[in-house]
Amino acid sequence: QTSNPPILQSSNPSNPPTQSLLFRVWFFTHKHLILNISPHFTLEEHIQHTNMAAEKPKNVVLSYFPFPGRAEPLRLALKLAGIDYTERSVSFTEFREKKDTFVFGTVPELELDGFLISQSNAALVYVGRFTADLVPADAKLEAKVHVALGLIEDGFSIMRESVVEPDAAKTLELRAALLAPGGRMTKFLFYVDRYLQQQTSGFFAGDALTVAELKALPFFQWLSGGVLDGFPATIFDNYPGIRKNVELAKAAIAARQ
Question: Are 112 and 85 in contact (CB under 8 A)?
């Protein structure tokens, strides 16, 4: 419980009541209760945190290969936030030559007004905070968002060997094994689909679009889009939870644009 704030009195216009000594002592004693924030935050820091969407970066550069991949969720998030950005397209040759110049030797990298983020999930969550509700304020829902982000990374990891394999015949062999009964991708899709069916709304976290869908949708579309030899467009026919999530995400994104 919080005690009542002291009566605020100030006859000096340059010293408004909210700056009075008594009020500031009372506020900093009770701020973690009345604002549900860390007692280590200052009032100004809390205001800055909650108003993040109003302070959009102006100089944004996204560095990645010239295809969707792990950067597509970032592109979606930036577009929904109304943040203009410059795309620095990195060729495979350039990446091999300059790999060590990237912070962790990987892309995508996202730079916002000089602030560099070198992990795609961290960048997605950061950009998502510039758009209302894309990163839930509720801690449990945010945890579910991170569950989804991790899941999709698992999916990329499962695909990696077949993607980097240079031999076309071997690639098809690897992907046939992934999609066989008991194959790694078959098991992965089963678990993801079961999880989504357990979510009443069909979304990964709560009942609305979050960065979880921005991460998952491009991945699901990649698997079913006909661009991967050995992966049919009907891959999700037996996965109603995934199909529902895809349709919900597409509709929600379209409604925000």
Answer: no
Q: For the chain, what percent of residues have pLDDT higher than 70?
A: 79
Helices 43-50 and 21-34 sit at what angle, rounded to 10 degrees? 50
Contact yes or no for 214/76 (Cβ under 8 A): yes
Task: Tell me how far CA of residue 242 lies from CA of 23, 176, 210, 213, 224, in angstroms.
Answer: 52, 21, 15, 11, 11
Q: pLDDT category, 22, cuts 50, 70, 90?
A: low
Q: Is the pLDDT of residue 169 over 80?
A: yes
Cβ(116)–Cβ(109) under 8 Å? Answer: yes
- HSE at residue 193, side-chain half, CA atoms within 13 A, is 16
Q: What are the structure tokens assigned to 211, written together?
A: 């960065």
Q: How far is 3 from 65, CA to CA, in rounded Å? A: 57
Amino acid at 14: S
Average pLDDT in the chain: 84
Question: Is 32's pLDDT higher than 70?
Answer: no
CA 130 → CA 42, 125, 154, distances in Å?
A: 21, 9, 26
CA distances from 99 to 94, 95, 96, 108 (A): 8, 5, 5, 12
The whole-angstrom separation of Cα 39 and Cα 33 is: 8
Length of the chain: 257
* Tokens encoding 151: 């899941």
